[in-house]
Design brief:
With about 325 residues, this protein is α/β, with parallel strands linked by helices. It has two domains: about 150 residues, Rossmann fold (3-Layer(aba) Sandwich); about 130 residues, Response regulator (Rossmann fold), CATH 3.40.50.2300. Helix content is about 45%, strand content about 20%. The protein contains eleven helices and 14 strands. The strands form four sheets. Strands 2-1-3-4-5-13 form a six-stranded parallel β-sheet, with helices on both faces. The longest helix is centred in the first third of the chain and has 22 residues. The N and C termini lie far apart (about 60 Å). The structure holds alpha-L-rhamnopyranose.
Length: about 325
């Protein structure tokens, strides 16, 4: 081999090694969602990718089970532990069932946070709520009540029966229900954040309660399925579907009148913030009561005594603004 060729080969090898080393140093943050195929989480993943791009040395692993079960998430967590990720940022299908697996992750030095749907404090370092739980609980009832001045029956179509976030919001909604004179909650059913099951559960409510005035679905999957069931049942104008939805998915329902209005926060910002928080904890920020941990362009999260922080207020969408937002998330 000529000397020149040798030098060139060595240079090529060195730069290949350096590239390999840089790659090996990438921080791996796993964004674990309730289930794959849910638009809300896909929007959150966009935000996570945005944060990774901004940080420069982060690889996002977007993953989750195929259905919204704790068992499915435990399998995913165990495989992430085996892969040696640096952080797991999870939206939990069950607040308690995931604790042992997540404790094992933390024992191995993995940063664990929950976001959107929380894990019990012993199973994570902090939890990021999208907004104040009490505010969300009140919002979903108010959205229904505002469109039924004479009062009447409402029912809730939730996600899975063990979803931490929906269960807290429903509990908060029930607390403020007495403030809405004449509004009666007749039932709560669960569609498991599966489109077909949610659709059938909505049809079940419609059949069982002929006087039903509103279906409140505090889930993006449930609200879309319920608006479809109301539309297919020829009940637009009789049963209003409301709750939490994505403008991109709900535009048709608002245009048809199946849904007068609904609310949500920005899921892109939520995924972005969860990634920034995970990164800063990996880099040494202490997740303890009173701490302020940076969230990049979203400011800082202030942790309360339960290790929880909340982001922004939900925003209401209706015929006046849906067109503007439906292409964003
Ligand atoms: C669904 C999921 C998610 C929830 C939204 C509102 O996408 O259940 O956890 O925050 O709805």
């Amino acid at each position: 081999m000529s000397i020149l060729k040798k030098i060139l080969t060595t240079a090529a090898l060195t730069s290949a090694m350096m590239a390999g080393a840089a790659q090996a140093e990438n921080v791996k943050i796993a964004l674990v969602v309730k289930a794959l195929g849910i638009g809300f989480f896909e929007a959150a993943a966009k935000g996570a990718e945005e944060a990774a791009k901004e940080l420069g040395d982060v690889e996002i692993i977007y993953t989750g089970p195929t259905d919204t079960t704790a068992e499915g998430q435990i399998e995913v967590i165990n495989s992430l532990i085996a892969q040696g990720v640096n952080a797991i940022a999870i939206s939990a299908n069950d607040k308690d069932a995931l604790v042992p697996a997540l404790q094992k992750a933390m024992e191995r030095g993995i940063t664990v946070i929950s976001w959107d749907s929380g894990v019990a404090p012993e199973g994570r370092m902090m939890h990021l709520n999208p907004s104040s739980n009490a505010l969300i609980g009140n919002t979903i009832i108010k959205l229904a009540a505002d469109n039924m001045p004479e009062g009447g029956e409402v029912a809730i179509l939730s996600a899975s029966a063990t979803a931490t976030n929906q269960n807290i919001w429903i509990e908060e909604a029930k607390k403020v229900l007495p403030n809405y004179a004449g509004v009666t909650l007749v039932d709560t059913v669960y569609g498991d954040d599966l489109a077909d099951k949610s659709y059938r559960e909505a049809q079940g409510l419609i059949a069982k309660y002929p006087n039903l005035k509103a279906i409140i679905a505090p889930t993006t999957v449930g609200i879309l399925a319920a608006s479809q069931a109301v539309t297919d049942g020829g009940l637009i104008g009789k049963v209003n579907v409301t709750g939490l939805g994505l403008p991109s998915e709900m535009a048709g329902a608002v245009e048809s009148g199946a849904t007068v209005s609904f609310a949500i926060w920005n899921p892109i910002d939520l995924g972005y913030a969860a990634t920034m928080l995970s990164y800063n904890i990996i880099k040494g920020a202490k997740a303890e009561a009173g701490a302020e941990i940076g969230m990049g362009r979203m400011g800082a999260a202030m942790l309360d005594e339960n290790g929880e922080a909340a982001m922004s207020d939900p925003f209401t969408y209706d015929a006046s603004n849906i067109a503007e937002f439906k292409s964003i998330f």
